[in-house]
Specification:
By secondary structure, this protein is an alpha+beta fold. The protein contains 3 helices and 6 strands, in the order H-E-E-E-H-E-E-E-H. The chain is elongated and about 90 Å long.
């Protein structure tokens, strides 16, 4: 096949008038299967050598029991975590300014080999939004009463040509994650050292069990009582004033 090049009247071109495509293409996937297999093995080896072992929970999402308004399902039973090695990149304490002030969020990018994920969770299984992982190995020697942080998958990519698709092959899952907002869901651990003050007993772990479930164990807390009671104990005791409501009130003036 040849393509004639246009040359204007009176012009002399140093280029040939015909173009013959090269016989060899490095990205021809019919001819580079061996090269892509080598790259895939190399990427898996790099992740195994330099990655971190994490505990990974697959989200057992059910359209029947989920509360799609609040985006959670406190009655679902999460499966036992599986342990897998991922390459991770942390963007910790990423500050975002909004109208309520600063919002500190931790974000993470993780890379897991597709064959490793299949070997751990079964053929055809894929990471999905809502899955949760814990940095068990990275966080096992944190100071104080702390352990590994929990992250929730927000995006899964198999194609990101600038970083994970050499020779146009697909070898790994690229995951985008954000810090997991713990919501007392069954079988998911809370981060050690992360104590949430509950405003009243209507929040937190469910007081009754669901049919077929084991009794739930309420996690210990060093801050007992409502937010109002805790504020009185540790911030300022309003009981000696005319108004002991920590949330404030409105003064009525009769002018």
């Amino acid at each position: 096949m040849s393509i004639d090049r246009y040359v204007g009247p009176g012009c002399v071109s140093v280029y040939p008038y015909t173009y013959t495509p090269s016989v060899l293409r490095f990205t021809d996937k019919e001819n580079n299967e061996c090269e892509r297999e080598v790259i895939g093995d190399q990427m898996r080896e790099i992740i195994d050598l330099y990655g971190q072992k994490v505990a990974y929970w697959q989200n057992p999402y059910s359209t029947l029991s989920a509360d799609n308004i609040y985006g959670e399902d406190p009655t679902r039973n999460w499966p036992q975590p599986q342990y897998i090695i991922m390459g991770i990149k942390l963007d910790e304490d990423n500050l975002t300014l909004n109208k309520f002030g600063f919002d500190a969020q931790d974000y993470m990018t993780a890379m897991v080999h597709i064959s490793s994920f299949y070997a751990t969770f079964g053929p055809g299984q894929e990471p999905k939004s809502g899955d949760v992982l814990k940095l068990t190995e990275y966080g096992n020697d944190r100071p104080g009463d702390r352990d590994g942080k929990l992250f929730e998958v927000t995006q899964r990519l198999d194609s990101e040509n600038s970083s994970i698709n050499p020779l146009a092959g697909h070898y790994v899952w690229l995951l985008k994650l954000k810090r997991f907002d713990y919501s007392e869901e069954v079988d998911l651990p809370n981060e050690k050292g992360s104590i949430q003050v509950l405003d009243n007993t209507g929040y937190g772990t469910l007081s009754a069990t669901v049919s077929g479930e084991q009794p739930r164990v309420t996690r210990p807390s060093t801050l007992d009582g409502s937010a109002q009671e805790v504020t009185k104990r540790f911030v300022f005791d309003y009981s000696g004033t005319t108004n002991d409501n920590v949330y404030g009130t409105y003064d009525v003036h009769n002018d």
